[in-house]
């Protein structure tokens, strides 16, 4: 069962939901940027400068959170997102490396 913030436990992360979340190029960009940043990097949703409305941005991050790709915490009147790197490596070894390689020349 997901915790109170809508984050599934690592064992509850489903491959189908993760792949569905990553099917969108904008969400893949968010995960790739977090995957190539130092471990533990936290960024606000707006810092990714995605070309979408605030409501659409909220939707994208909700999909990422509910799939288990990111953890979000409230910081004042914004939310910080961090990649759930350890959980993803445990459940889906090599997935983050594939995403990081996708953005490489």
TrEMBL record:
CDD domains associated with the record: HTH_ARSR
Signal sequence coordinates: none
One Pfam family linked to the record: HTH_20
Keyword DNA-binding: yes
Keyword entries, A-Z: DNA-binding, Transcription, Transcription regulation
PROSITE patterns named among the record's database cross-references: HTH_ARSR_2
UniProt entry tagged with the keyword Transit peptide: no
Gene3D superfamilies: Winged helix-like DNA-binding domain superfamily/Winged helix DNA-binding domain
Domain HTH arsR-type, residue spans: 7-103
Matching InterPro entries: ArsR-like_HTH, HTH_ArsR_DNA-bd_dom, HTH_MetalResp_TranReg, WH-like_DNA-bd_sf, WH_DNA-bd_sf
Protein name: ArsR/SmtB family transcription factor
Protein's organism: Streptomyces toxytricini
């Amino acid at each position: 069962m997901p915790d109170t913030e809508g984050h599934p436990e690592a064992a509850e992360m489903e491959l189908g939901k993760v792949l569905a979340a990553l099917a969108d190029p904008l969400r893949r960009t968010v995960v790739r940027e977090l995957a190539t940043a130092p471990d533990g990097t936290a960024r606000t949703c707006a810092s990714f400068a995605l070309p979408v409305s605030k409501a659409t941005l909220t939707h994208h991050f909700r999909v990422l959170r509910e799939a288990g790709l990111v953890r979000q915490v409230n910081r004042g009147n914004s939310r910080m997102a961090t990649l759930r790197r350890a959980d993803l490596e445990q459940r889906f070894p090599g997935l983050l490396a594939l995403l990081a390689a996708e953005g490489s020349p």
